[in-house]
Amino acid sequence: MFQARNVTKVFGLPAGRAREILDEAEDRSRAITAAGGVLAVDDVSFDVAQGELFVIMGLSGSGKSTLIRMVNRLVEPTAGQIYYDGTDIAAMGEAQLRELRNKRLSMVFQHFALFPHRTIRDNAAYGLKTRGVPRHERLERADQALHQVGLGQWGDAYPEELSGGMQQRVGLARALATDPEVLIMDEPFSALDPLNRRAMQEQLLELQSTFRKTILFVTHDLNEAMRLGDRIMVLRGGTVVQLGTGPQIIAQPADEYVHDFVSDVDRSRALTAGSIMTEPWLTATVDDDAASVLEKLDRTPAKGLYILDQDHRVVGVASGEALSRAAADGERDLRRCLDTDYAWVAEGTSLARCCHLTGGDVVPLAVLDADKHLLGVVPKTEMLRAIATQEEGD
Ligand SMILES: Nc1ncnc2c1ncn2[C@@H]1O[C@H](COP(=O)(O)OP(=O)(O)OP(=O)(O)O)[C@@H](O)[C@H]1O
């Protein structure tokens, strides 16, 4: 949907002069600073897929706002291209640009003004007014959007009657009412207290599970980034330090900077079963012979194993004990010693949830896809290792 290629922004110098310096300089940032400019974004490339919630994360001054302002051309890039559905935004004429900003993109900011003397419904409909939608339709769509953000009952109220968190929801409703293809959210929840912030994050995820908008979400909070982002791009000093899924970034921070960042993250919520799963020591298929399976099991430290059908789908669990009994009885058929009551999770399940499901089972927690194919297992030791924060010097 979006492709950014080598996007660069220099403030405070004419674009031509800035490009000359950038082309020649070894240390681009220093050379721009020496010439009296600011290199706010330096050679940033990324792709955002349709329906992806793409997080841009970095500390204050890392270039996040400048970058997203280039996406809707509120800021002109000094160099590089941004393509929207294959069209270079820089090459768009006035009319095309207006259509992009009015119909296809919508922005939600940290601080946005509600009109105090207008109802919540009118406030939510505001974006549609500027887009020339007739009044009747505006109000209907505003009501729908208010309903989506949990403010269905508040259409007739005035802003002063709403808490800060609720007002921020009106901002989201205002953006949603325009039914944009892409939502650009610049630190939208940063001014909220932790509880409201959490509630808004959950609401956004819920909306996203239904509507699957393409969302560019800017934050300086890594926990927020981890909770929301399908992928996260970490910026520092205007350059990309790392781009990956939350679990990838936690598991393999690209450098000390990212490592320091992730050391504060709630790993039990940020990491998923899929990110730490391993191969099971042993599996067998339903057609195997119980005695020979037991023999193999005895050569491993495992107390049981998953039994699969020919398509690698789990049909149940066999414990060493059940296998021993079967072998002692001369029973050869594995199906007879299967237990079909076992705990399993999907790849995206958080480790916090996995902890709840892990008990005294003879097999580690299974990670299955929707057709019950065995993707891997999450042993308790792996889970603890992953959740434990690495102390310095480890
Ligand atoms: N209009 C401007 N003129 C000059 N310098 C600018 C301008 N806008 C931003 N900058 C500088 O560019 C750099 C990146 O700023 P930017 O606002 O994009 O970062 P940010 O990560 O969004 O920070 P914050 O979270 O504080 O908004 C900073 O050094 C900033 O001072």
From TrEMBL:
Q: Which UniProt keywords apply?
A: Amino-acid transport, ATP-binding, CBS domain, Hydrolase, Nucleotide-binding, Transport
What InterPro entries does the record tag this protein with? AAA+_ATPase, ABC_osmolyte_uptake_ATP-bind, ABC_transporter-like_ATP-bd, ABC_transporter-like_CS, CBS_dom, CBS_dom_sf, Gly-betaine_transp_ATP-bd, P-loop_NTPase
Which Gene Ontology molecular-function terms are recorded? ATP binding; ATP hydrolysis activity
- Domain of life of the organism encoding this protein: Bacteria
Which PROSITE patterns does its entry note?
A: ABC_TRANSPORTER_1, ABC_TRANSPORTER_2, CBS
This entry's Enzyme Commission designation comes to 3.6.3.32
Q: Where is the CBS domain?
A: 277-334
Q: Give GO cellular component annotations, separated by semicolons.
A: membrane
Pfam families, per this entry? ABC_tran (PF00005), CBS (PF00571)
Q: Where is the ABC transporter domain?
A: 23-262
Query: Mind telling me which residue stretches traverse the membrane in this protein?
Result: none
Q: Which GO terms describe its biological process?
A: amino acid transport; glycine betaine transport; response to osmotic stress
Q: Which family does it belong to?
A: Belongs to the ABC transporter superfamily.
* Full protein name: Glycine betaine/L-proline transport ATP binding subunit
- The source organism is Saccharomonospora viridis (strain ATCC 15386 / DSM 43017 / JCM 3036 / CCUG 5913 / NBRC 12207 / NCIMB 9602 / P101)
